[in-house]
Specification:
heterodimer, A: alpha/beta, 3-stranded antiparallel β-sheet, 7 helices, 21% helix, B: 60 residues, alpha+beta, 5 strands, globular
Chain lengths: 335, 60
């Protein structure tokens, strides 16, 4: 018997059907001594049967096997081997040796096979669902390396796309975009979905949340941003942004167009760039306005440029002269 | 450092701008000067806003 030693890593599990006497089974890649092999374990029971090919690849136990796409295979094979208590997705050397030691041919009647199928139907179904989930999100998130999320979840949750929070919107890996252009535009995803995203390395926020049909956004980290045009544009139901983390370099370009219901926003960090315009946000609270003023960089010693922040007449009317002077004394003109 | 709050206001039917931002009243920063600001008509202001909005909506 040709023996494969080493640690086997299950990294792809795919359903397929119609394998000779076997009603359904799974295919996987496994790793041995640094090389990848293709192997099988299969039903009628979920994982109690294993073909000879699993431990003796190339020994003509699979007489025919072909794939027509990533999820469907046709395969003809000889008898399976019975394994006991084998239900781990990753096995170490001890378990591997146990498997080898306990492998034995166990001919079964059709009735026995049907009984095992019935007993394991839910496990097979669950394993299939998990394999579908893994296959999709591994592909969609590039096995956890995805950083370009442009348009990724556009219109999520609005019924016109596949994305439904907790049902189809269940990312497998942390979302850490570098580019988030239109990433959540027209979204109805809940607060929790956005709160899970790490924007700390994101540079492009063009239209990230524009037209979003939500009322409350969590903390958004804009410190690495180089473009923010329309990030919150036309979110006329948005009422609260818990926090905007900003740096002196964070640009502000049409960020709050038509955010007509925005009441609360808090800035942390330093506002150092022109372009902030809250003219549409006539409902901003006094605390929100003071958060903006407090975050303005002190340019009182800098005469090289004119610095402005546009609050709009409605918001300016909420500030006392002393509060306005806190901005103008830092070199910012209020409009 | 000046602690005086200096204000300039637009005439009726006019809007103040420094070429970048627009408003009826400007509270000048300590280093800003009234001569940095000039008036445009309300119609010119609306036209400019429409242009800016169209630009901002352009998909890239």
């Amino acid at each position: 018997m040709a023996t494969i030693k080493g640690k086997w890593k299950w990294n792809k599990i795919l359903d397929f059907y119609g394998c000779g006497l076997i009603l359904s089974h799974y295919a996987c890649n496994f790793e041995s001594n640094g090389e990848e092999y293709f192997g099988f374990y299969f039903s009628p029971c979920h994982i109690e049967y294993i073909p000879q090919a699993f431990v003796e690849w190339g020994d003509n136990n699979i007489t025919a096997c072909e794939s027509n796409n990533l999820t469907e295979y046709t395969c003809t094979m000889k008898e399976g081997y019975r394994l006991i208590d084998f239900d781990e997705q990753e096995i170490d050397d001890d378990l591997y040796n146990f498997i080898i030691a306990n492998a034995e041919v166990v001919p079964q009647t059709i009735a026995e096979k049907l009984q095992v199928i019935a007993e394991n139907e839910q496990r097979v179904f669950d394993a299939g669902k998990k394999s579908e989930y893994d296959a999709f999100w591994d592909r969609f998130q590039s096995n956890g390396t995805k950083v370009w999320y442009d348009n990724a979840f556009s219109e999520a949750g609005n019924g016109y796309t596949c994305w439904e929070y907790g049902v189809t919107y269940k990312p497998k890996y942390p979302i850490q975009p570098i580019s988030a252009m239109n990433m959540y535009q027209i979204t109805r995803l809940p607060y929790e979905a956005i709160a899970e995203v790490d924007f700390s390395k994101c540079t492009d926020f063009y239209g990230t949340f524009q037209y979003g049909v939500i009322t409350h956004l969590p903390s958004i980290d804009l410190r690495a941003a180089t473009r923010t045009s329309n990030i919150f544009g036309y979110m006329n139901r948005l009422e609260i942004i818990d926090e905007l983390k900003v740096a002196e370099t964070t640009p502000f370009q049409n960020c709050f167009n038509s955010c007509t219901n925005l009441k609360e926003i808090r800035f942390t960090g330093t506002i150092g760039q022109n372009g902030l315009n809250f003219t549409s946000c006539t409902l901003l609270s006094h605390d929100s306005l003071m958060s903006i003023i407090n975050a303005l960089k002190n340019y009182s010693q800098d005469t090289s440029e004119t610095w402005t922040v546009t609050l709009g007449a409605d918001n300016l009317a909420k500030l006392t002269d002393d509060e306005k002077k806190m901005a103008t004394n830092k070199g910012w003109s209020l409009v | 450092m000046s602690t005086e709050l200096r204000t300039i206001s637009a005439s009726d039917g006019m809007v103040l701008t420094n070429g970048e931002v627009y408003g009826k009243t400007v509270y000048l920063g300590v280093n800003d000067k009234p001569e940095n600001w000039y008036e445009i008509t309300d119609a010119e202001y609306r036209e400019r806003m429409a242009e800016l909005e169209a630009e901002s909506l352009k998909m890239i």
